[in-house]
Write a structure and sequence with these properties.
Elements: H1 2-40, E1 44-53, H2 66-70, H3 73-81, H4 83-90, H5 98-108, E2 109-112, E3 121-128, H6 131-178, H7 185-205, E4 212-221, H8 225-264
Antiparallel strand pairs: 1-3, 1-4, 2-3
């Protein structure tokens, strides 16, 4: 058993010395190929945006989380229907299917989950090879998100107006029929409902177009030295493994054949 291990070790040393020049040549060739491909790879433009609901928008329904709007089908349907989106999308993609557009959008936009302490904050990063496209997509993403957020808020207050109007009418009839005083509980509730209705109507009639704000930062990510070193390491180790493995098998078979002939002789 020991002799077999020693024999295998001798074969390995023999293979290593014999095929070392092949390993070096192959490693150099692979390194050149990898470095060439890395140099041709375009840098990636990252645009990060931290979106947050305006603090001074006191009339907003705070139960509506910005993350829920971003995850909605309405948001995706609106953004992939935009001409600007299709212009950017069409530069690299051919499919016109909505599901493929949505998959592509998800592939270039990375969204962080909302912080539990502040669920009305959303962080997303857009990553493309073209700086101009990244900027346009970031602006489009933000504007569509703001539009959808405003739309959902508006629909909420329209519903509130309908409900409050009915509620006020019922309470008004009750007060008149029972002759209740202004100090009664139902009169106080009636007054609160009137205030809520007024706030809802103020929101509907407000001309503000922006309820969220963003904090944008840009970053150019190129190919660093680490990537080149990793590529060279892969080339060297890969070459050594392949050549030594094939060489060892070949030499081992030769040795076994030689031993077999000697034994027979």
């Amino acid at each position: 058993m020991t002799n077999q291990k020693e024999n295998n070790y001798d074969i390995f040393k023999k293979v290593f010395r014999k095929y070392l020049p092949v390993i070096v040549v192959l490693a150099v060739i692979l390194s050149v190929v990898i470095i060439y491909k890395l140099k041709r790879k375009q840098p990636t433009y990252l645009i990060k945006n931290t979106v947050k609901v305006e603090e001074d928008a006191s009339l907003l329904n705070r139960n509506l989380k910005i993350s829920k709007v971003q995850q909605s089908d309405d948001f995706y349907n609106k953004i992939i229907a935009e001409d600007k989106f299709n212009e950017i999308y069409g530069k690299t993609q051919k499919s016109n299917k909505d599901e493929d557009k949505r998959k592509w959008l998800d592939s270039v936009v990375s969204v962080e989950s909302s912080d539990k302490d502040d669920e009305n904050k959303l962080k997303y990063t857009i990553s493309t090879l073209d700086k101009d496209n990244a900027k346009k997509l970031c602006e489009l993403y933000f504007n569509t998100l703001n539009s959808c957020y405003k739309g959902v808020q508006t629909q909420y207050y329209k519903t509130e107006i309908e409900l409050l109007t009915k509620k006020i009418e019922i309470m008004k009839n009750e007060i008149n029929s029972l002759g209740l005083s202004k100090e009664s509980n139902i009169s106080a509730a009636y007054s609160d409902a009137l205030n809520e209705l007024a706030n809802a109507k103020v929101f509907i009639n407000t001309n503000s177009d922006e309820y969220i704000k963003g904090d944008v930062s840009e970053q150019l990510v190129g190919i660093g030295k680490k990537k080149y070193l990793e590529g060279i390491a892969i080339a060297v180790l890969g070459s050594a493994f392949v050549v030594l493995f094939i060489g060892f098998i070949a030499e081992y078979v030769k040795e076994r054949i030689k031993v077999s002939h000697n034994t027979r002789g």
